[in-house]
Amino acid sequence: MSIATSSRRSPLTQPSPLWGEDIFIDSPFVVPGLSSPTFRIPHSTFRIQNGFTYIALLAAIVIIGITLGSAAKSWQNIAQREKEEELLFRGNQYRLAIERYYNALPGRHQLPNSIDVLLKDERTPTGKRHLRQQYKDPITGEDFELVRDMFHGNTIKGVYSKSEKTPVKQSGFPDELKDFEGKTKYSEWQFVSGLTGTTRR
C-alpha cells in the first residue's frame, strides 16, 4: 500500500481566545485524512513584543529630544559668541575714535561732547571723520550707552552695552581691555579711552 503525498495545508481551525492564530507548516508528506501539524503562538507573546516596541519608541523620542535641545543650545552659544565679537569690534571703534578726536589738534586736547562730532570733526578744515559710522550695540540692537566724564565738562570718554547678559568670553582680552576679564555682565565691558586725565567710571 502506497502513501499518497500532497502539498496541501490542513484546514483552519478556530483560534482559542487565549492563544493566537494557527501557524501551519507545509509538508510534502501528508497522510490522507490527517492534518498537517499546527502550532499556536500565545497572545501574550505579541503583547510583550508590542511592549518592547513601545519602550524603544519612547527611548528614541527622548534621545532625539535631547539631541535637538543640545543642538539648539549650541547654536545659541555660537550666535552669542558672534554678537560678542562684534561688540568688541564696535566698542573698540568708539574707543579709538575718541582718542583720535582727542589728539586731532596738537595742543588742543579735548574729549567729544557728542557722537556726531566723531563722524565729522568741525574743528578741522576738512571735517575729519574719526568714526566710520554710528554703530549700534549688537547685543541689544540699540544705541550704546555713553560713559561721561563729569570732570571735563560732561564730555564722552567711552561707551558700553546696557545688556545684563553674562558674557561667554571671560579671558584672553588684549591689554587695553584687560579690565573685561571675569566680568559677569556685558554692561561691565566699558570701552573707555586710556587718555591722560580720563578715568573709568
Could you explain how this protein is built, in words?
The chain has 201 residues and is an alpha+beta fold. It has one domain (47-192). It has helices at 43-103, 116-119; strands spanning 19-24, 38-42, 145-149, 155-160, 190-192. It has a 3-stranded antiparallel β-sheet. Strand 3 (145-149) and strand 4 (155-160) form a beta hairpin. The termini are far apart.
Task: Please give a quick description of this structure.
With 201 residues, this protein is an alpha+beta fold. It is built from two helices and five strands.
Produce the secondary structure layout.
Layout (H helix, E strand, L loop, with lengths): L18 E6 L13 E5 H61 L12 H4 L25 E5 L5 E6 L29 E3 L9
Antiparallel strand pairs: 1-2, 3-4, 4-5
Provide mean pLDDT, rounded: 80
Query: What is the ordering of alpha helices and beta strands?
Result: EEHHEEE
| Structural class determined from secondary elements | alpha+beta
Kindly report the oligomeric state of this protein. single chain
Q: Strand arrangement, largest sheet?
A: 3-4-5
Top keywords for this entry?
201 residues, single chain, three-stranded antiparallel sheet, rod-shaped, two-stranded antiparallel sheet, 2 helices, 12% strand, 32% helix, alpha+beta
